[in-house]
Design goal:
alpha/beta, Uracil-DNA Glycosylase, subunit E, six-stranded mixed β-sheet, 7 helices, about 35% helix
């Protein structure tokens, strides 16, 4: 279910549209379009990633599905009761989110997984609309600095006043005035886990804080 999403042939970012056209020719059986959010609009937790991976979400059409980052994210979500079923690394595996929703700061796959500042800004209204469309939202988890900065701006904040740090918690308000907490984590990418920048206990620690936050709500 898409609350606020770009169309399949969104042309807001010419470079991304061109790259998308190239991948459609090379892999016509892939999703190759803006990747919609995953989860129900009744969710109290919104997870914000960077952008679809070329052979992950861009291929499967579901955030964090089909690459290593999804292996760690979805196993952690299941351990903390935010997902049910079995993760099979494909969009039709039957996995369901529980009280959680996943979106990306940038909806289209960028070359070399590096969106430009202009592309991030062009896609931010979709993130703002996502947040506005979640009436029970109480917590946002930003995976990485780009997701953090975009989430801060989507929530009406100034990025320089809310420094990204793994394990940090920042206080905001929802569009209706209710309290909302923004949590930070290093991105659950293979690079971060292979280098030790993010360990499984570190990642789980953030989810422990999120669970505590939701119990307070």
């Amino acid at each position: 279910m898409a609350l606020n999403a770009p169309g399949r042939d969104c042309a807001l970012c010419p470079r991304l549209a061109s790259f998308r056209a190239q991948t459609r020719l090379a892999h016509p059986d892939w999703h190759n379009a803006p990747v919609p959010s995953f989860g129900e609009p009744s969710a109290r937790l919104l997870i914000v990633g960077l952008a679809p991976g070329l052979k992950g979400a861009n291929r499967t059409g579901r955030p964090f599905t089909g690459d290593y980052a999804g292996d760690l994210l979805y196993s952690t979500l299941m351990d903390f009761g935010f997902a049910s079923g079995a993760y099979g690394a494909r969009a039709d595996d039957g996995l369901a989110l529980v009280d959680a929703r996943i979106a990306n700061a940038v909806r289209c796959v960028p070359p070399q997984n590096k969106p430009t500042p202009a592309e991030i800004a062009a896609c931010r209204p979709f993130l703002s609309g996502e947040i506005a469309g979640l009436p029970r939202l109480r917590a946002v988890l930003a995976l990485g600095r780009i997701a953090h900065d975009s989430a801060v701006r989507a929530l009406g904040g100034v990025a320089s006043r809310f420094a990204f740090a793994h394990g940090a918690r920042h206080e905001f308000f929802r569009p209706d005035g209710g309290p909302l907490a923004l949590f930070d984590s290093y991105h659950c990418s293979r690079y971060n886990t292979n280098t030790g920048a993010l360990t499984t206990p570190m990642f789980r620690g953030v989810f422990e804080d999120i669970r505590a936050c939701l119990r307070e709500a």
